[in-house]
Amino acid sequence: MTLHLLVLGDSLAFGTGAASSADTLGARLTRALEAAGRAVRRTVVAVPGATSLDLDAQVRRAPQDADVALLVVGANDLTRQVSPAQGAAALGAAVTQLRRRGTDVLVVPTPDLSAVAWVPPALRSVVAAVCDQVRSRQTAAAEAAGGAVAPVAPALSARFAADPRLFSADRFHPSSAGYALVADALAPHLLTLVARREDAAA
Q1: Alpha-carbon distance 71 to 6, whole Å?
Q2: Is residue 50 within 8 Å of 9, Cβ to Cβ?
Q3: What is the Cα 108 distance to its own chain's centre?
Q4: 170 is a catalytic site residue
Q5: Is 173 labeled as catalytic in the residue annotation?
Q6: Rounded to an integer, what distance in angstroms lies between the CA atom of residue 118 and that of residue 109?
Q7: At 71, is the secondary structure helix, strand, or coil?
C-alpha cells in the first residue's frame, strides 16, 4: 500500500535554498521512508514566506487522503511579527483539521533563529529565548490537537551555528547539506509516527 505524505508550511518545507528538488526536506524524507520499505507518494503544498496564519489555506488546498503530514512553520511568524498566541492557535487549528481527515501530523516548530548569521552576537541570547517561547506555545497547541512534535531545534541550532556551509547563499535558508542534516534529525520521528499508524491500522 502506498503511503501518501503531505508537506505543508513555509520555505523550509518547500525547500528554498536546496541546490535541487532532490535535496529538499520532503524529497529526503520520502527516500528515508522508501529505504524503510514503504512506497510513498508525496504532495507539497508548502509556500515560501508562509506564516502559521497561512496554514488554513494550505490545508484546504491539500488532498483529503494524505496518510501523514509534515508541517514545518514558525520562522516567518517571528520575522513578520505574528503574535505567538495567534500563531499557536492557527497551528492548532490546522492540525485539528488534518486529524479530522485521518491524517497523522508531525509538526516541526520554529527553528532557533539565533544561529542565523545576520543576528548580532549581542542579541542571540534574546532571539533564542523568543524562539523557545514561540516553540513552547506551538508544541502545546500541536499536541493538544493530536499532533506529534519533533523537538529537534536546539540540537540543530548548535550544528548550524558551528558550520556556515549548512546555510545557502542567502545565509538564512539551509543549503543542500543543511537540509540533509535536518532530514536526518526528523526521519526517526517520521518513521515512528508511520509505524504507530500502521500498528493502529493492524
Answers
A1: 8
A2: yes
A3: 4
A4: yes
A5: yes
A6: 21
A7: strand
User: Which amino acid makes up residue 4?
Assistant: H
Side by side, which strands form the sheet with 104-108?
39-44, 2-9, 68-72, 104-108, 148-149
Q: Where are the alpha helices (DSSP H) in 39-109?
A: 55-61, 75-79, 84-100
Find the catalytic residue in 54, 67, 104, 173.
173
Q: pLDDT tens per residue, the chain (202 residues)?
A: 899 999 999 999 999 999 999 999 999 999 999 999 999 999 999 999 999 999 999 999 999 999 999 999 999 999 899 999 999 999 999 999 999 999 999 999 999 998 887 787 888 899 999 999 999 999 999 999 999 999 998 889 889 989 999 999 998 999 999 999 999 999 999 999 999 999 998 8
| CATH class assigned to 2-201 | alpha beta
Phi, psi of 145 (to 5 degrees): -90, 0
Say how many residues make up the chain: 202
Catalytic residue among 11, 157, 168, 176: 11
Residue 92's contacts (CB-CB under 8 Å, 6 or more residues apart) are 141, 142, 144, 145
Cell of 200: 493502529
